Amino acid sequence: MNKRSARRDFLKVAAVGVTAATAAQIIKPAAASEDRAKGRRQWAMVIDQSKCIGCGYCTLACQAHNDIDPDIQWNRVTPVDKLAGKDVFLPRPCMQCSKAPCVEVCPVNASYYRPDGIVMMDYDRCIGCRYCEVACPYQARSFNWDAFNGPNPAVPKWGQPEVARRPRGVVEKCAFCYQRIDRGIASGLQPGADVDATPACVVACPTGARIFGDLNDPASAVSQLLKDNVTYRLREELGTQPRVYYIAADAQKMEG
Amino acid sequence: MTRKLRIRVPALRITPWMIWVGLLGLALVAALAGGVLVFWKGLWITNLTDLVPWGLWITIDISAIALSAGAFSLCAIVYLVGLKRYQPIARTATFVGLIGYTMAMLSLLLDIGRPDRFWHALIYWNSHSLLWEVTMCVMLYLTVLLLEAMPILAGFPFLRKRLPKVADRMGRVHHYAPYLAIVGLALSMLHQSSLGAVYGVLSARPIWYKPEMAVLFMFSALLGGISLTLFASMLAARVTPKARINNLLTERVAYAVAWGLVGYLYFRFWDVFAQHYTYAPGRTEGLELLTAGPLSFNFWILELLLGTLIPMIMLLTPYTRRNPFWRMIALGLVVVGVVAFRWDTNLSGLLVVMSYLPGQAAIAYTSYAPSPVELVTALGIVAYGLLAFSIGVRYLRVVDHRYAVDEQEAARVESTETVPV
């Protein structure tokens, strides 16, 4: 009898313990990088749709600098509308969400936040289940259906590869050219202001439609633009809090 | 030499069993070739795209897991609720479950881009990911199922003859059946629901983004799993004397399935009906795919009419329920309905391509049809399941409703023993 109740008690305690531990683990808020105090710098991009002429240079520069398979685009430019007889384009890099569904759903933590807000991919860890691709509201992710072995047609005209090619069978995405940011900062440059420390798409844009910088720096170009303009973000109602802001096209400011 | 020949000749007489195994073997060989092709060439030879990254293989994966739900539910009924007379059905369900989960593993192995890294989920935990939770639960539950199936597997004539001690030890695992049933119940309730929640938590896909996904997956898995176990048992009993079923037992469980279908239909009706009102971008389009679009045949005919409504009526009507043939057909239809539900759920979310812009309702549709290599490998996975079940029926007596009578007696004696206080 005693033995029996002791076992029962033990099971109860064990059950409560396991439940509490699990609950604590699950209830603990996700490590959202929303907390801006966490990193000193918080990178963001502003895209001015009045200035975008849909030339696609950003896509090509991205393909070269990140050594991307020609079948994949991390940075798509699509015509979305017409305004005063001119096409309006929507360039879409990864939105670098503050509450990124892809980070939440990855079963192996291959997607993660950097302290500066960039949503990163660990290509050595990804198992290729593609749950992140299904979860991403912006189709910012691409799967390597095939290996990319041949020459990159965008190299050398649009730049030199700066990161390793991803293997077949993993999901890949834009990471705000983190390699340029990191190397730039290491050599004393300022991302957003100095070309060598700024994402390739921003540098390649001939009309200056893309502006990159630090949200935590009130003097940065992005902070200024966000202060002076009405901006919107894509599918904002989902609560993903993207770090890519758009200034809607204005017929009077449209470029040729 | 001549002696050997004399032994071989009668064995070469073609029996229906050999034809059956031969056909399944052909399907397996074709699937093996397809699988090698997938591993060698990569996933670009499939019809999966970045817009529809989950297709036939994932449907097989989630269907096979759902249809294995008979194992945990019947084991719980037998060992936890104490309805011992259903033990032989639970035994079959355990074996079916083991097959189902290995089928799911096989299809996942094909589907993920880096099958060599499947173990990453075990060491790089993301406890916020439902897919991680499902992976862990499925792996743990597969272990439980293996243990639960030990006494069945111990019945292999080869094992009993050559390694009687091992077989004996495997048989004694049965002693732990109630504990395994508890663990199995907890793990299965978790991951059967979470599989629905894998879809249900994605705000990017409005037709999936609803709390009832977990409930619907769980509910339909219970019905489908029990139905498949009964259907397979009854079919086996029709084609081979090796399978023996107890008509009354199957009828009682089928009656429970009937009322389960009533409940399920109620949930599913309100799930669809409530979504039908008020326009929500993406969700309404997804629903249209089901009610009027390319998935409408699946939705109306396979899932709702043949898969739920008709078997419900058939199993509630005394005549069709008591008639073994019609009962079997009804149970088979439930299985069809569950698979159709999984297929529809997966595609109704993926085929709708949302617009990114605020206030712009322009929504595009994409399409998906499995490629030959996907079909061949999928057929092979199903063939593996059929072959494993056939071997179980033939050599392990997995469908034998007289089997556990002696064990049942033993349990009864044990339970009536006086306990010293």
Draw up the topology in text.
The complex is a heterodimer of chains A (256) and B (421).
Chain A: H1 2-27, E1 43-48, H2 57-65, E2 76-83, E3 86-92, H3 101-105, E4 111-113, E5 119-121, H4 131-135, E6 141-143, E7 171-173, H5 178-186, H6 200-204, E8 210-214, H7 221-228, E9 244-247
Parallel strand pairs in A: 1-9
Antiparallel strand pairs in A: 1-8, 2-3, 4-5, 6-7
Chain B: H1 2-11, H2 16-41, H3 56-66, H4 69-81, H5 87-111, H6 120-123, H7 130-153, H8 157-162, H9 164-172, H10 177-200, H11 212-239, H12 247-276, H13 283-291, H14 296-316, H15 318-322, H16 324-350, E1 352-353, E2 364-365, H17 372-395, H18 405-416
Antiparallel strand pairs in B: 1-2
Helix pairs in contact in B: 2-17, 3-5, 3-16, 4-5, 4-10, 4-11, 5-7, 5-11, 5-17, 7-9, 7-10, 10-11, 11-12, 11-16, 12-14, 13-14, 14-16
Task: Walk me through the structure.
The complex is a heterodimer of chains A (256) and B (421). With 256 residues, chain A is α+β, with helices and mostly antiparallel strands. Chain A has seven helices and nine strands. With 421 residues, chain B is mostly helical. The termini of chain B are far apart. Chain B contains 18 helices and two strands. Chain B has helices at residues 2-11, 16-41, 56-66, 69-81, 87-111, 120-123, 130-153, 157-162, 164-172, 177-200, 212-239, 247-276, 283-291, 296-316, 318-322, 324-350, 372-395, 405-416, and strands at residues 352-353, 364-365. The longest helix of chain B has 30 residues, at 247-276. The interface between A and B is large, with 48 and 42 residues.
